[in-house]
Amino acid sequence: MKNLENSLKSLLEERYHHKHPFNIRMHKGTLTKEEMKTWVRNRYYYQTRIPKKDSSILTKSDDPDFRRDWVRRVRDHDGDEKNTGGLELWLRLGDGVGLNRAEVSSLTNVLPGVRRACDAYVEFVNGHSLLESVAASLTELSAGPLMGQRITAFENYYTWIEPSALDYFRSRTSQAPRDAQEGLEFVLGNAKTDKDHVACVAALTRKCEILWELLDGVEWAQSRPKIVDRARMRKNESMIVLPERAIELNSTGMEILESCNGEATVNKIAEVMRNRHNTIETVFTDTYEFLEKMKSAGALEYI
Amino acid sequence: MNENFHRPYNLIAELTYRCPLKCPYCSNPLDLTNYTETLTTEDWCSAFEQAAKLGVVHLGLTGGEPSTRSDLEVLVKHASELQLYTHLVTAGMPIDAKRLAVLAKYGLCSVQLSVQDSTPEMSDTIAGTKSFDRKRVFAEEVRALDLPLVLNVVLHRQNLENLPEIISMASYYGAHRLELANTQYHGWALKNRAALLPTLDQLKNASRVVQDSRLLYPEMEILFVLPDYYSERPKPCMGGWAQNTMVITPNGRVLPCHNAGTLTELEFWRIPENSLEDCWTISPGMNTFRGYEWMKDPCRSCEYRERDFGGCRCQAFALTGDMNATDPACSLSPHHPEIEKARDESIQSAPSFVYRDSAKKTGGQI
Ligand code: SF4
Ligand code: SF4
C-alpha cells in the first residue's frame, strides 16, 4: 500500500499545478491586476463545479458512513446557510479584486479553455468509479501547502487586495488537509488489485492535467491574436482568404479581426467588443468563440 | 444572374499536362497524348478576368507541372492584379529560385509542393524521376521568400510505413499545412490500384501516427481522412457537383472537377468559344448532377444524400459503367462487393507500378 501512496505523492510533486508558469508568477508577485482579476473570475467557475462533482460522488456510494463524511464537502462549499460557505468566500475574493459580483456569479464570461477543463472534471467523475473519483480529488493533498504559500504571496505582493478577501484561502488551509487525509485513507483502503492502483494513478494524472489546462485557459486571455501573414482580407466582401479556404464574416467578425493586430490581448479585444455592443449579453463568450474558431481555421496565431 | 446561380469560389487552372514526373497515381487523363494545349496566354488571362467577375476567390495554378509553361509569370501577375488568391501547385521542377522570386514579386500568394515520400530513394522511385533533392531545396527557396508552403503527399501502401518521417519532414520544411491525400482511384491510379491500395492495418496505424503528430506539431495543420475504400460512406465530392469549384483543362474544357472528363457521355463546353459564365451556368454537363433530381435508389431516398451527394460520379462510372449509380464506395451500393474484393486483395502482395509515362509499360517493384 505504501507503494500506491508514494506513487500518488510523487505524481503530485511532478504534475500538480504548483509548477504551472501562471501559478509560479502568482506566487512571485508578478501578476498584473488584470491577470489577477481574470484568474479570480474564471477560477470561480471551477469552484462552482466542485459541489456538483462531490454530489456525483455521493450517488456512487452505498455506504452511509462514507456519504455522511463526504456530504460535508458539499456543505463546505455551499454553506449551511445562505451567504456562507466556500462559494460565498470566493465571491468576496472577487469583490476584493474589484470584480462585479453579478457578472462573476452569472458564469457567462468564463474563458472557453477554463470552461472545458472544469466541465471535463465533472464529466470524468460522472463517468468513472467511486474509487477513481475519490483518487482524482487527491490533488487536495497538495492544496493545503499551496494555500499557505498563496496567503503569504498575497499579503506581501498584492497589497491592493483587502486581507479579509483572503478568507477563502484561510478556510482551505484547514479543510484541504482534512479532506485529503480522508480521501487518501479511502483510496488506500479500497484500491486492492494492481488494476485498481493503475486506475487511481491514471485518475489523479487526469485531474492534474485538468488543473493545468485550467491555468492554460486563463493565460490564453493574455495572449495576443494576430492575423497570419498568409491571409488576405477582401474588405468589400467581408472575407478573409487563406491558402486553403475563404471565410465570409459578418460585420462583428470583421470588427474582431481588425483588432487582432498582435498587440491587443484577448481580454482587451473582448472588452472593446463589450463597450461597443453592451446590449448583447453574450458578447464576451461570442468573442472568445470567434477567436478560437479563427485560430482553428488557421487565420490567427497567438503571440 | 438568376437565383440558381452557384458562386464559383475556386478556379483550378490546369495549365498543361506536361510534367517531368511520372507518378503512378496521377489524376491526369490516361490518353495524355490526345491533348494539345490550345489555350494561349490571352485566353487564360481572359478566363481569370471572367472568373473574378463570377466571384472566384481562389485560383490554383496546376497541371501537370505549371512551371513548364513559360508564360507562368504573366499569368500570376495578371491574376494578382485581379485580387485572386493565387496558389501554385508544383512538383518543384523545372522551376528555379530566380523564377520563384519573380512570381513572388508578381503577387503569388502560396505554394503547394508535392513530395512522394520521405527519402530520396523512395520518393524518386515513386515519381519515376530523380526529383527529391530538388524538392528539398525548392521548399527552402519558398520559405526564404516568406511564401506560405503547403506540402502534399499522396499516401498509398508503398509509403504509409514512412508516415512519421513524412510528417517530420513537412515540419522541417516549414510547411504550415500538410495534406496527406489518399490516392483517389481514377485514371492512372485505378490502373495501379492493386499496387497502391493500402491494408486496413496500415491505415489504422497511420491514424494513430497522425493523432500523435497533431500534438507534437501543433502549429502545422495536418489533413488526413480515411480513404473511401475503407469507410462505409463515400466522400462528398467537391462540396457538391458544380457548386463552388470549376476546373479548366489545358485545352479549355470547363469541368466541375479534374476527373469529370472521364464521363464521356457528358457535354462540357470550352473557352474561348464560349464565355466562362455560360460554361459554368448553362453547359449541359455542369447541370447534369446539380441538385438531387438525378439520383436513383438507394441515394434518392437516403438521409445522407445532402451530406455526400451520392459520392463520386467519376468513380461510379469507372466501376459500374453507369454514371448515375450510387458510388460503389458506399456500403449501400449494389456494387460495393467490388470495393470489398479490392480490399481483400490488398492483403496479398503488391504487383509492380505502371508509370504514367506511356513509353515505359511496367515499373520496378519497390
Ligand atoms: S446511398 Fe447514396 S446518399 Fe446514401 S450514403 Fe450511400 S452514396 Fe450517400
Ligand atoms: S466527381 Fe469524383 S473525381 Fe470528380 S471531384 Fe467528385 S469525387 Fe472527385
Task: Explain what the structure shows.
The complex is a heterodimer of chains A (303) and B (366). Chain A has 303 residues and is mostly helical. Chain A has two domains: 219 residues, Heme Oxygenase, Chain A (Up-down Bundle); 78 residues, Coenzyme PQQ synthesis protein D (PqqD) (Arc Repressor Mutant, subunit A), CATH 1.10.10. Chain A contains 14 helices and five strands. In chain A, a hairpin with a 4-residue loop joins strand 2 and strand 3. Chain B has 366 residues and is an alpha/beta fold. In chain B, 34% of the residues lie in helices and 12% in strands. Chain B has a nine-stranded mixed sheet. In chain B, helix 1 runs parallel beside helix 2. The longest helix of chain B is centred in the middle third of the chain and has 17 residues. The N and C termini of chain B lie far apart (54 Å). The C terminus of chain B is likely disordered. Classes of the chains: A mainly alpha (303), B alpha/beta (366). At the A-B interface, loops of A face loops of B. The structure holds iron/sulfur cluster (2 copies).
Give a short summary of the structure:
The complex is a heterodimer of chains A (303) and B (366). Chain A has 303 residues and is mainly alpha-helical.
